[in-house]
Amino acid sequence: MKKDKMRVITKFFTVTAAVLLTITLILPLDSYARGGFGGGGGFRGGGGGFDRGGFGGGGGSVRYGGGGGGFGGGGDYRGFQGGSYGGDRGDFGGGSYGQNRGDSFSSQGNRNFDNTDVNRNINNDNVNRNIDNDNVNRNVDNNNINRNVDNNNINDNYRNSFNNDTVNVYNNNHYNDYWNDHWNTWGGYYSGWAFAGGLAVGAAVASLPSSYSTVYVSGDPYYYTNGVYYAPQGTQYVVVPPPSGAVVTSLPPSCSTVYVQSSEYYNCGGAFYSNSSQGYQVVNAPIGATIQTLPNGAESKTINGTTYYIFGGAYYQPFYSGNSVIYRIVPDPTT
Amino acid sequence: MELSSNFSPWCFAVLIFALFIISGAAVPGSPSAAAQETQAPPKTTEIKPVIDPEADNLLKAMSAVLSKAKTYTVSADVSYDRLMPSGLLLKFSGTVDVTVERPNKVYASFDGDIQDRKIWYTGSEMTVLDPDNGFYGALKTPDTIDETMDFLINDYGMTIPLADILSADSYKAFITNAVAGVVVGESTINNKTCTHLAFVQKYIDWQIWISDGADKLPCKLVINYKTVPGGPQYSAEFSHWSIDPSVDPSLFKPDIPAEAVKIDFLKMQEENK
What number is the ipTM of this complex? Predict the structure, then answer.
């Protein structure tokens, strides 16, 4: 008797589920549009953040986590605003200045300095060159996860993983950005004072790599390949920081997108590019941009009681934002 | 896995109702319903949650234990998913230790795969330390734990670990947004028999396991984020509950390494500047 009843209810459930599934399929993906990491609305509307910067997976709060809001909904995580991750209230702010999309997932500051990295690469064609405790990965056409055991970094290189269209879609969602900003700390290509494609800035080579393009900046030739710039010096070539103004047709292998106001920039390990009609142009670090992870090789300096990190001539100031630490590019505090 | 007898047919009805609510299909006043029923004008009826009274009572009992405790300590093994851009869902984990002295003291320490953090809350001030990168910061805060949690989330987008159980009224914290709740059955967690409850909200589903016996305490909490790509899950398995232990007051005193660098907090409003 009881069993029969159960069967009837189960059957009803099945039919209902089928109807609901149909309805769900017909309905627009509204929830995604409003979406939010956790919903579309504010925190108080039910909250939203799954992650909130990741204090242990974002707190995992029912009260602050369900229904409404957002992860993207909010300010901090404004990164996701407008995209599928964006909530529509935007009150979870944390405050990344300058609309840095993609800060959201943040869960850590930079834990990367001077560590010996161990990479476990899954499913890829990967070359890792580990030089003097610093790590440069050149990932070609792969889906790559580097789990750096000592410092718990994950590099998921979307630029390698997705074609351009996909990347654009993701940029709209402001999702991937984070991952790059956040996890791709290895980006040694303008680790100026650390590495550039496996070569330290200042390193001299007798001949250029097999494929390179020549770019001119103020009439001076530079040779560009894979994120690395060489300048002729006598009979040799010297690795130099990305010369401001240089235009290249392809970005370095690992870049994340950052936004300042509505301008889009690519942060390639501390070298910044903006879109140009002919490709991508090397620009000065955009003041107001917020990143998750300092470029490798940034050096700390305390000025008037405030600690900054300096890299490539830019000043990065750390802040607590939501549950994570972010770095904002600020004007030179000494001027 | 078999459902226990507690998982009655009634539960199915509740869940089905919840599905209707969530899909928006059967809710008067929702756009889809309005479009289908041309003769009746759309109503703005409030959705009435459908919570199994047994589940509701257990949640209340648990909340009462937590509210009554002057002090308590608990540890939790936490895991949570992160979706990689490649589509791979990774699971990370960590351990949270929390000590609470009502109404206005909390010490929380999180030791995780990708983040470590300590928080001290003393009624007037909250101090945060990130031991890994050597940063710390301090904020003036409201007088009570509840006010402070609201203040932190609203003004700074910050959360304190295990926020739901820190609240003076955790029942309210849990139930506010639930549209359906059922008793699933019994589970054994950390050698304790616990009753498994499941709740449905619009954007999350969550499950809580509450220990049987005199002290109704959370054994485990699981949250599924339904609208988040990858459907990530958060899980906290509680252990070492201690209700009304004597707590060394020095635990609530921030312990900041001399070399730590003090940094500021960004307010959420700054975002819009």
Answer: 0.77
